[in-house]
Amino acid sequence: MRYIVxxxxxxxxxxxxxxxxxxxFFELNTGLVAGHPERHCVNYFGYPVGEKIKLFCCxxxxxxxxxxxxxxxxxxxxxxxxFSGKVLSFEKFEREIHENFGITFSGHPWLKPVRYPCxxxxxxxxxxxxxxxxxxxxxxxxxxxxxxxAGIIEPGHFRFICNGEQILHLxxxxxxxxxxxxxxxxxxxxxxxxxxxxxxxxxxTVVGHTVAFAQLWESLCxxxxxxxxxxxRTLALELERIAIHTGDLSAVCTxxxxxxxxxxxxxxxxxxxxxxxxxGGNRLGKGLVRPGRNQxxxxxxxxDRLREVLDLYEPDFEEMNxxxxxxxxxxxxxxxxxxxxxxxxxxxxxxxxxxxMNNLNRDIRASHPYAFYPALxxxxxxxxxxxxxxxxxxxKEEIRQSIGYIxxxxxxxxxxxxSGKLNEEPRPDSFxxxxxxxxxxxxxxxxxxxxxxxxxxxxxxxxxxxxxxALALAVRNNEISDFPICNKSFNLSYCGHDL
Amino acid sequence: MFENLKILFHxxxxxxxxxxxxxVPGIFRGRPVISRAxxxxxxxxxxxxxxxxxxxxVSIDLGKCTFCGECARAFPEKISFTQDYKISTNIxxxxxxxxxxxxxxxxxxxxxxxxxxxxxxxSLKLRQVSAAGDNSCEWExxxxxxxxxxxxxxxxxxxxxxxxxxxxxxxxxISRNMAEPLQLCYDATPDPKMVVLVGTDAISGGIFAGxxxxxxxxxxxxxxxxxxxxxPAHPLTIINGLLDLTRxxxxx
Lengths: 499, 252
Hints:
The complex is a heterodimer of chains A (499) and B (252). Chain A is α+β, with helices and mostly antiparallel strands. Helices cover 40% and strands 17% of the residues of chain A. Chain A has helices at 22-33, 91-101, 181-187, 191-199, 206-220, 227-255, 259-280, 300-324, 328-334, 342-348, 353-356, 364-367, 373-376, 388-410, 464-474, 483-490, 495-498, and strands at 4-6, 11-13, 19-20, 39-49, 52-61, 66-74, 80-81, 105-106, 141-145, 157-163, 166-173, 430-437, 442-449, 455-461. The radius of gyration of chain A is 22 Å and the shape is globular. Chains A and B meet through helix 4, helix 7 and helix 8 of A and helix 1, strand 6, helix 5 and helix 6 of B.
């Protein structure tokens, strides 16, 4: 076998992952993805082994629900052909490997820095000297925005090249938020520390990232979560989706200066996040998800309370939708604004909502189901125009869908079963991969243990890692005044990308 | 028009009439109380993921605490978190809650710089800088301005440029990559300017404390006017903290 097949959240011995020569590794992985929209790379990263670097490539197949993993041992100065020369969607992964280890890939479009991590191979690279793409012209002008933006949002730098009001090109420079999350997973030895670290990867996706970490850790330790744990996690994931999508609808209304929509959707988010606090003591779900146990069991009383919250939420939500989606002044700003084609989304490896906005059906809840999702038989919401309108519609319909799932689930609250104790030590020399569909899209955590079961590698991938490029493509040929609404309609994570 | 009025009517009254007395729903982890009960102090100190708990006397530093609640879960007879969200102060030491303490954490008006009261007391414009914040405190700062919490009613607003600001509000543990932009923003803010830290990550680095990717030297250079703890800080903690800093007077 040239690769090993695993399912989501399955632990395997590292020794079982085939080690290929680079030529075979290249042919295998590019061959798996090229011409196969149902397959995409969920993670591709390096791990130092002595003087050499071991590359691991994980390809998910949405039809067979499998993940195909292969590896390759290379030297830091080997001459390697870039995967992205053949399949562009590997582009970002190769840049990251280049930045971390100094490996050069020939035929890569541009091995630019990704996030200026503190342990980068070339310390002479400085974030202040990022190599932007430039066009020499008398008629074009550049607009630079950030890293600090006008509102209360995270930092990142946007460099536009414009022809008058029209955007020809946008380049997004990230890395300002880099906190060293991945090395900290290895340094922090206590499970609770690592859990809190997972909660802090992206504060708007607390549940998504923490569920990925918890599932991965439980799999490494050979712990099988009981039904009520899976139940609670799935509920929390769907509540997080409702809360953020509602907030995003409000933000989109703000950006088209539609006060009523902004205020109503904005205030509708509050009961949902306040419910998170009623359940677990924190509006963003921090402290709610813990590996190996059900920290805040979901009781019948909580179910009744949630039903009340949703009963109040739904009529106001639908009334506002009814207005917004019939309002000509809103629709004219949404429709055909910030469009990305199916082909472009496929070529950059877009995931989650950003993929589903134009026929690229990628949703881990359906393709690699986990927790309670196998029972829900999730049907992804897919749209067909790739514009702001499609992205707004996805949110509206996913909120309805999530409410439906929650109502279905809380009709049968499982009894709280005492679960077995989580083994403190993970299995030695093992590899695990966990995929979770957060509200933005696919979250991927990978981990590897050494001979005594200690963590030797932890990799985090937020959906924003791929999707920032979709935003840059979306604004091309749009007016620069439409940038805010394009940006909000994606609502990507800076800290999730920068780690 | 009629439809709009109907929607408005259906929202009812959303604003919180009194932000100083409002109750937070459900189980909120606010100011902790530590009893004098005998307990395994070593195990208690050990359980904290961010070394916020010290022994002899047992105390919790809310500038470091991530409010995960694990200590209260393991030692319920020793530690409990109350619903008290008013935990902002201008004195760093006041964030340390000791065993037997059950009194509010407050701003000390005597220690507030005179020009803050004189010039910024009635109208305050702030520039927010997220310096590697995880977008949770940023979220709650935005929420402080929504129709429910409505901080602008007190004349406190966030502005787009540091040139228009009376101070900066920092969230996040301050990454090396944000150190320079943060400094530029501070330098661009006119005097007198205040510095407010929001959230555990900003106050102590939180779970990221000690990471080589951080550069917190900015905080050694300037006085900090207000600490607003939390993970993230609750909008009511934020609003009450800013109001106490600017409005509270000596002897009142």
